[in-house]
Amino acid sequence: MRRLFPVTDMTAAGTPASDTAAASDREWSLDELADAYAYPAEAAFGPWLRANMVSSLDGAGQHDGRSQPLSSEEDMRIFGTLRALADVVVVGAETVRLEGYRPARAREVFAARRAAAGQGPAPVIAVVTASLDLDFSLPLFTEPLVPTLVLTGAASSPERRAEAERAGVEVVIAGDGPGVEPERAVAALAERGLRRQLTEGGPRLLGQFVAAGVLDELCLTVSPTMTAGGAQRIAQGPSVEVPKRFAVAAVLEQDGFLFTRYRRI
């Protein structure tokens, strides 16, 4: 793993290229990754929503409906690190179905860091859905280390909400219609003390967060792959009147994969 930006003393002018490569092109420890991806200090006081997505060189956010073919071993290490830093992972129902989501697990290597931040042993999974078309017998709902939440709207099916609650799932109302309003979802989670927020999509959910102006940070893995075809981009849905501007915060590289962080301006 090499840090390309921000520039450090290891990439300062006058350092021989061979020395720089030898010092930086190595596998980082999970502690080093956690330091590199730490939430900003303001996340301790108010919600901070970051997204973690992967994209091919030609803009595909998926291949055959899943993100895994675009990923790598290091991308998955960062995926796990971002989860370990979060209070809550917010995910759309379609992504839960396609990616076979399971409960977040506690990891000993991050236990002390989470305890120092006042966090539980693992992040909460919060599923965003208007239809509540979910299988509540799956381990995500029956075997979580911390209870899974379902975010929906007030006009969603009362029968499906009751079914979720009978299964022991906490249903959170975050919209007046059948669906979830992004601003209210962020606020409702923060009210529960879940301020360090991470969304893993899918594209429609991320598009809604972008259009609503509530996405604070994007952690984007640029995969050195080309897929062609008609795959979705990482964000779909409502357009914005003026494109949202983000500033680059960091760029790491390994095996041709670029691991980037952008923050909203």
UniProtKB/TrEMBL annotation:
Residues 11-20 have a biased composition (Low complexity). Pathway: Cofactor biosynthesis; riboflavin biosynthesis. SUPFAM superfamilies: Dihydrofolate reductase-like. It comes from the Bacteria. Keywords: NADP, Oxidoreductase. InterPro entries: DHFR-like_dom_sf, RibDG_C, Riboflavin_Biosynth_HTPR. Residues 1-20 are annotated as: Disordered. Residues 47-241 form the Bacterial bifunctional deaminase-reductase C-terminal domain. PANTHER family: 2,5-DIAMINO-6-RIBOSYLAMINO-4(3H)-PYRIMIDINONE 5'-PHOSPHATE REDUCTASE, DIHYDROFOLATE REDUCTASE FAMILY PROTEIN (AFU_ORTHOLOGUE AFUA_8G06820). This is Pyrimidine reductase family protein. It comes from Streptomyces roseoviridis. The lineage of its organism: Bacteria, Bacillati, Actinomycetota, Actinomycetes, Kitasatosporales.
